[in-house]
Amino acid sequence: MMPAAKNHYSSDGLVLVRASVSNGRIVAEIPIEELRRILAEGNVVILKGVFAPDRMLELRNAVRRWWREIPEYPHGKSPTTTPDVNYHRIDRGNYQSTLPHIFHQAGFNNLSILEDYVSGAARETGELMRDLQNTVAETDFDFAVTGLRIKVLHYPSGGGFLTEHAHPRLPQGVGLITSLSRLDVDVKTGGTTFRTPFGLVDTHDTHDIGDVIIFRYDLPHAVTLVDEGNELDWNSDAGKWSFVLDLRETHAQSQAHASE
Ligand SMILES: [Fe+2]
Under CATH, to which class is 8-256 assigned? Predict the structure, then answer.
């Protein structure tokens, strides 16, 4: 997929860049100024191989355990009304939403009161992503009721999806999506798509476990139907898993984007 001798590879609107964790930070193998320029032009960047797959599976399993042990957040009430509560909820697509979707979501609003077996792994990955977010976008967000929160999303095989939508570009600047699912093992079809100035970019065959997508936050994006035709089983971990950072103040401003 990526030529061994180069540190990045690009096709229309999609740029793959090798990256790693070094001295407690995510470091891409291109200069930060180049990364910012590529993103500002509207390219989608995938940082390849940032996190070890085993760590991502541990994180995912910890989240699944938490889902089994903690009662589900009730439908008919918005989690934004309880901004200090860690919650999870299965959204089966049978409640009206401005952004139709099917996924199981966790919102880690308060890491300090989150159970240890999940908060350690969530914080480790989340802090590295927070630093990357702030470095690339030249922002200074923290995990707080007025700042960022962690979300983990499981789009189940046989039905998971998220309608195309867009966020305001500022103040977040960029969005990050870390994959916790293995291509071909957990998920075969369905992935995050972006409407870029260079055309539609579909990351389903390149965004593997431990890779981090970075995109300019105002690019319309969606998750296409995951493994259509499979039987949907909420007890199975098959499907697509995403770990994202969500800035509270822009969450409510996400707009459905009419497809052309
Ligand atoms: Fe989004």
Answer: mainly beta
